[in-house]
Amino acid sequence: MGRRPPLILWRLLDGRRGHLTQILGLTQALADRCVIQIHDIPTPGRLAGLAAWAGGYFPVGRDQPDPHLILAAGHSTHLPAMAARRARGGRIVVLMKPSLPLAWFDLCLIPEHDAPLQRPNVIATRGVLTTVRPSDRHDPDTGLILLGGPSRHYDWRTEEIIEQVHQIVSRQPGVHFRIGDSPRTPADTRLALAGVEKAEFIPWEQTEPGEIQQMMAGAGQVWVSEDSVSMLYESLGSGAPTGLLQVPRQRENRVTRGIDHLIAEGTVTPYAQWRTDPQLPPPPAMDEAGRCAEEILRRWPAES
Fold this sequence. Notes:
Helices cover 34% and strands 20% of the residues. It is of the alpha/beta class and 304 residues long.
């Protein structure tokens, strides 16, 4: 028997780092299971995408082989993905809840907190897909604390956050903690983090892409501020016992309901609970990118 031909992926990119991370996560999971060939396609604007769809052409992909799968993350990629499929074939996999009708796409990978409808072409995922994979090398003597900042869903109180960080570090003198921030972290919080004793502060601008995820894979415990949903799911995906730092909520919404669900099922441990019972149980095994990749290949085998 000859070697199976590769699964040809067109990845429509909109330039947003979070969307790229989702696509990379699914791409890596597919590559773990079959031979793939990747072609990154710059996304034309929505109007250009609409015109291409209406005309049945897709000039930005003219020099690429016909795709088996068209991966799209970000609303601006949806019309171009439909234009690409109409012009060149393939199946569209969108990695979010689309603003267009679900029936227009071959498969929609939608986080549970977005309350996706039950449809044959919908897979509800636990959070967004990430590049993090389960690890078996978590060192109980190391810890990682990851902070975000104010957002449209959350307020931010530096004194309360720093008090939580101090308590976590001081109550575990045998654990070496690293603390990471993000572009959203306020300046006064960053200044206070640099002064936390017996912990190593690592500013986000001094880290390389993927470095924090590598730290997750080796950490015996990870604490994430509640506003940082993507980092929270990355921590869970690594298999690290995960705690949740409390941040004031602006309102109850789909994001906070998703967090509450994780707390209710014991997947994450909120700080207030840890204060009275200082344990962080490991989360259940979670490899959402791998699960989605297997379902894609079950539906559309790589050799077809």
